[in-house]
Amino acid sequence: MAFAQRLRDDDHVTLSARDLPDAPGLDAYLAAMTGNELAYCCGPAPMLEAVAARIPETRLRTERFTAVKPVGTDTSFEVELVRSGRTLTVPENRSILDVALEAGVHVLYSCTEGTCGTCETDIHQGEADHRDSVLTPAEQRANTTMMICVSRSSGGHLALDL
Ligand code: FES
């Protein structure tokens, strides 16, 4: 809201806030979506969940400020770094990112929580256990990239473009 006045001056922006008397609600915004329009949402988790419950996942893009809680038990696995020609063991209590950095592999990263997308890495082979909040569910199912700061192997051989 620090830029509220600047946003009001832009014809492409509709500014709304819950405490404004005539502000349309979430349902009104989503009902006004047409064709293949996408909803881009960032903000508190309850709001993101409310939007996700109202529109198909293919029409929603979210940005989260907190990590998604991982489901399941972490186990150790091996990861092949194709460009580096190395295979590393990722212990149950560490991430692929941690292990790669410790091994001297150059990897870009920022949040280390699966929320920013900086560490997105191409998958050459294998299936990831996706735990990020960057990829859409469809992108996670496509299994072509993964966020190595939080996501792990879902079992079997995992080879990455590192
Ligand atoms: S460093 Fe941000 S998603 Fe991995």
Write the layout of secondary structure elements.
Elements: H1 4-8, H2 26-31, E1 39-42, H3 45-52, E2 60-63, E3 77-81, E4 86-90, H4 96-102, E5 120-125, E6 128-129, H5 137-142, E7 145-147, E8 152-153, E9 158-160
Parallel strand pairs: 1-2, 3-9
Antiparallel strand pairs: 3-4, 5-7, 5-9, 6-8
FE2/S2 (inorganic) cluster (FES) is lined by residues 109-112, 114-119, 132, 134, 147, 149.
Q: Can you describe this structure?
A:
The chain is α/β, with parallel strands linked by helices and 162 residues long. The protein folds into 2 domains: 4-63, no CATH class; 77-160, Ubiquitin-like (UB roll). Helix content is 20%, strand content 21%. The protein has 5 helices and 9 strands, in the order ααβαβββαββαβββ. It has a 5-stranded mixed beta sheet. A two-stranded parallel ribbon has the order 1-2. A two-stranded antiparallel sheet has the order 6-8. Helix 3 links the parallel strand 1 (39-42) and strand 2. The longest helix has 8 residues, at 45-52. It starts with a helix and ends with a strand. The model has no long low-confidence stretch (mean pLDDT 90). Bound molecules: FE2/S2 (inorganic) cluster. The site of FE2/S2 (inorganic) cluster has 14 residues, from loops.
